[in-house]
Amino acid sequence: MTTAIKLFNRRKSRTRFKLRKMRNKLPRLSVFRSGRHIYAQVINDVDGKTMAAASSLDADISKQAPKGCTMEAAQLVGKTVAERAKTAGVTQVVFDRGGYKYHGRVKALADAAREGGLSF
Which of 5, 51, 47, 46 is nearest to 29 (CA)? Predict the structure, then answer.
């Protein structure tokens, strides 16, 4: 593996370790960011089930923000995943940013999810 991938995996495992210590059996809002799209899902780790998910590839989101790698798309994904999580009965989550910095598209998604009704 390259050094960049090793460092990313180290940051990701450090983040997940901290989440496991503090989460108190809450579901986690996991974010994956690629070069072209952004994905978010609410995962219940106790049952191993995905409770809600949204991505910039969804039809309604891609109509509103045609380019998948923008801040607008990240905000739409955040709002959508918050609405779907509330429909599934989830209001509190822990935010799992993975190995990404809390900046840019990841921050935009988190802020939109908070505005949509999720608390973390």
Answer: 51
Is CATH 3.30.420.100 the right assignment for the domain spanning 3-115?
yes
Asked whether the predicted pLDDT for residue 53 surpasses 90, the reply is yes
DSSP string, 67-90: STTSHHHHHHHHHHHHHHHHHTT-
Kindly state the tokens that stand for 50.
């995905």
Least trusted range by pLDDT, from 28-32, 56-60, 64-68, 93-97 = 64-68
**Burial of 41 from C-beta contacts in 10 A (0-12 / 13-18 / 19+):** buried
* Confidence band, pLDDT 50/70/90 cuts, at residue 78: very high
**50 beta partners:** 43
- Separation of alpha carbons 49 and 77, rounded Å: 20
In angstroms, the CA 85 to CA 27 distance is 10
Domain positions in the chain are 3-115
